[in-house]
Amino acid sequence: ALIDQENYILDIIHDMITNNQTSIDDVINHTTVMLQKNPAFGNAWLVRSWALYQKKDIKQALYAAQNAATYYPNSALIQHNLGSVLMTVRLGDESIIHLKKAVKLDPENETINVSLGMAYTMNRQYNEAISVFEYILKLNSLNYKVYYYLGDLYSYQGKRNDAITAYTKSLEINPEFEAAKNKLQVMLTQN
């Protein structure tokens, strides 16, 4: 019943944000009130973390994300949020731990898998990142950004032909993707 009440309140806040009826500061204020009434309101910590992250208050966003994970450790969304904030503060190993938990809880979620692949990339664990991105392409072979990320990874590994193939595939799916055009052009002009 408490979870249902939390979700109802958060749906109202989400609708307010979506319809431009409230600001990020209002969201922070709403969550402050909620958390004063019930500090174990895990989803309020999640929303607060998101709002603080939008305000670039990363330290407080991390604190809120950690609290959310304390109350709801088995939420893929909360683990993903915490892992993403940790990635922002360059705590790659810790970020990967939480993102792997999120993937375990929601294995077919492309967004969570992309975050895990990016965390591996940031941590220079290129083979692991490639495995994650290849898995995503099994879920959705039309994800042009994932082909782009693979192109970067192959480039980092000195696999020029694989990088060219990945950038080309990205552009086959989205011919207007400027980043892939630029990277492909650089790859093709190199010896």
Provide a descriptive summary of the structure in words.
With 191 residues, the protein is an all-alpha fold. 79% of the residues lie in helices and 0% in strands. The chain has eleven helices and no strands. The chain has helices at 2-18, 24-37, 42-54, 58-71, 76-88, 92-105, 110-122, 126-139, 144-156, 160-173, 178-189. Helix 1 runs parallel beside helix 3 (42-54) and helix 2 runs antiparallel to helix 3. The termini are far apart.
The major beta sheet can be summarized as: none
Structural class: mainly alpha
| Shape designation | elongated
Order of helices and strands: HHHHHHHHHHH
Helix content: over 70%
Distance between the amino and carboxyl termini: 64 Å
Strand content: under 5%
Unreliable stretches covering 5 or more consecutive residues: none
Quote the average pLDDT: 88
Number of strands: 0
Task: Return Rg in Å.
Answer: 19 Å
Count of discrete alpha- or pi-helical segments spanning 4 or more residues: 11
